[in-house]
Specification:
- This protein is α+β, with helices and mostly antiparallel strands and 447 residues long.
- The protein is built from nine helices and 20 strands.
- It has a seven-stranded mixed β-sheet, sandwiched between helices. Strands 3, 4, 5, 6 and 7 form a five-stranded antiparallel β-sheet that branches. Strands 10, 11, 12 and 13 form a four-stranded antiparallel β-sheet that branches.
- Helix 8 links the parallel strand 17 and strand 18.
- The radius of gyration is 26 Å and the shape is elongated.
């Protein structure tokens, strides 16, 4: 009977500004069942959470975003879903700010913390995500252990950014980056929810960063303040690319020390998405020798070495014998190459050579970076960052290294700026070179 059929037409016009194309997107959904209405709204709400952010001139506050109710599905998801934070989540923002600040009481009236939570979503640059599940979970006494957003969806954690450098804040940066706050409900910590939140937040912020308007990047990076004794948080932030700013330590409210960490986004014009970082093999020996010669000439030009390509003693045969032995001997060092696809050919654009050292006192290895080099015509494309990321965030961490160390010529100003941006700290200068180090958080604590 037609009078018993529920016909709902949901028309959502999502205006997506595409800088390069300038198109408008329209979505029309026709639904004939009330259960389908809930499922469709739930799906559309999640879709909204994955839309790229708009640069200046587009959506400027979260209050401009169409608010979709968070609907429960017929079978609530067993794993957390990530959605946008909205102004309707103000109470949850205050709750998770309390957890982030390690406070026991409500923080709405704490002057130092108010800039992080007050009127969230109503100011330019406010943006955040929440990890949610679609059902309540009670503790042994029958009490709810998650924050209920008021619509049947439970918020397990939240991460958000605000531009508050002019209102106080704890971060000490040169670039007035927006500050990041994040917390997971205490009953759900250690379950990967913090990683889920940060990865989603950073991915969407990088999407915003790579939208260019009037030739200016919309977002250079983010910063946060972390307690220096919070090893679990430091390990997570380091893993996701945050670097501690030297000399940024301040006394915190708990009587300890906090430091500023920042994560800068690679400018879109320098992105190197097509770069492949791989281990060098025997067939690469000729290419590797050519790059070594170029590096010798570069080091000689900045006063880092007395050698140049004409005085090097290395040969292809020596490289084969020492780096790629064909018997059961171990190589003396390892080499990773940066490779890019250019039309029909793959071109090696840079390399890094390294070996491991061992400390009997620490009972752990460290990684010594011997050479890092990018061919001149391929510089300023993020290739050096990609090589260092592989060394620090994958190889060194996979081997539970205490740190990564290397030297750089004092006259190599551009290189030194690059290393400092990546978190390199000068530990031992000499007449011509500077010794740098990146400390790594331990994977475990000895019991």
């Amino acid at each position: 009977m037609w009078e018993r059929v529920v016909v709902v037409v949901v028309v959502i016009m999502i205006a997506v500004i595409v800088v390069a194309v300038g198109q408008m997107a329209f979505v029309v959904v026709v639904i004939t069942d009330s259960a389908m209405v809930k499922s469709a709204l739930y799906g559309l709400q999640l879709a909204l959470a994955t839309l790229p952010l708009q640069p200046a001139g587009g959506l400027t506050t979260l209050s401009d975003i169409p608010i979709m109710p968070t609907m429960r599905t017929t079978e609530p998801p067993s794993d957390p879903q990530v959605r946008l934070l909205t102004p309707n989540d103000q109470d949850s923002v205050w709750d998770f700010l309390k957890y982030a600040a390690h406070e026991d009481e409500d923080v709405r009236n704490v002057p130092l913390l108010q800039p992080y939570g007050k009127e969230f979503g109503m100011h330019p640059g406010d943006f955040g995500v929440a990890a949610v599940v679609g059902h309540n979970k009670d503790d042994d006494n029958g009490n709810s252990v998650q924050k209920n957003s008021g619509d049947g969806i439970i918020i397990l954690g939240a991460a958000w950014i605000r531009q508050i450098h002019d209102k106080g804040g704890f971060c000490k940066t040169r670039d007035n980056l927006p500050e990041l706050a994040m917390a997971v409900h205490p009953t759900h910590q250690g379950k990967g929810i913090g990683t889920l939140l940060l990865k989603n937040l950073l991915r969407q912020l990088e999407q915003q960063h790579h939208q260019v308007m009037d030739g200016q990047e919309t977002l250079r990076g983010v910063c946060l303040s972390c307690r220096t004794d919070n090893t679990a948080a430091l390990r997570l932030y380091n893993k996701l690319g945050f670097m501690e700013i030297e000399g940024s330590e301040i006394s915190n409210r708990a009587g300890g020390t906090s430091a500023t960490m920042e994560r800068l986004f690679v400018p879109s014009r320098l992105r190197s998405d097509a770069t492949l970082i791989r281990l060098a093999i025997r067939d690469d020996v000729s290419t590797l020798l050519e790059l070594i010669r170029k590096k010798a000439d570069f080091d000689h030009s900045v006063g880092g070495s007395g050698e140049n390509s004409s005085t090097l003693q290395v040969t292809e045969q020596r490289l084969l014998e020492t780096l790629f032995p064909d018997d059961n001997r171990l190589p003396y060092a390892q080499v990773v190459l940066a490779e890019q696809q250019q039309q029909q050919d793959k071109v090696v654009t840079g390399f890094a050579s390294y070996h491991f050292r061992y400390s009997t006192f620490a009972g752990r290895p460290s990684l010594w970076l011997d050479d890092l080099f990018v061919d001149r015509e391929f510089r300023n494309r993020g290739i050096g960052s990609a090589l260092m990321e592989r060394l620090v965030n994958e190889i060194a961490r996979d081997h539970d290294c205490t740190h990564v160390a290397w030297t750089a010529a004092k006259r190599n100003d551009k290189g030194l700026r690059f290393y400092r941006r990546l978190g390199g700290r000068i530990v031992d200068p000499d007449e011509n070179n500077l010794h740098l180090k990146v400390e790594l958080a331990a994977k475990f604590q000895a019991s």
